[in-house]
Design brief:
By secondary structure, the protein is an all-beta fold. The chain contains no helices and eleven strands. Strands 2, 4, 5, 6, 9, 10 and 11 form a seven-stranded mixed β-sheet that branches. Strands 1-3-8-7 form a four-stranded antiparallel β-sheet, with no helix packed on it.
Length: 126
């Protein structure tokens, strides 16, 4: 099984910044893309961002576009999610996931992803 480990979450005040990291158990990320999703208490899992590994193409949910930035290092060992201007609406458990190839689902759908990390809690207070 592929294992992904997220880190970097924590409690912050509104307007603060956090950077989350995702590291695979293997040497590098394998698959078509790495995505970030979040799930607030009592709500469904929500797409946040993904980065396509082959060409570095990125995409963002409208709710985070312009505030969050996804990136990877040159060796594809770590994927980051830099989050700026955080608001209480960003409070959620953030999950890193690996998306494979050959699916009818696009990378903004959690159904495209086959391996998930344990999640890291981000709590933003007013």
């Amino acid at each position: 099984q592929v294992q992904l480990v997220e880190s970097g979450g924590g409690p912050v005040r509104a307007g603060a910044s956090l950077t989350l990291s995702c590291v695979p158990s293997g040497r590098t990320f394998d698959g078509d893309a790495v995505g970030w999703f979040r799930q607030a208490s009592g709500k469904e899992r929500e797409f946040v961002s993904y980065i396509r590994l082959a060409d570095g193409l990125t995409n963002y949910a409208n709710s985070v576009r312009g505030r969050f930035t996804i990136s990877s290092d040159n060796a594809k060992k770590t994927v980051y999610l830099k989050m700026n201007s955080l608001t209480p609406e960003d409070t959620a458990v953030y999950y890193c996931a690996r998306g494979g190839a050959g699916s009818i689902y696009q990378f903004n759908s959690y159904l495209r992803y086959d391996y998930w990390g344990q999640g890291t809690q981000v709590t933003v207070s007013s």
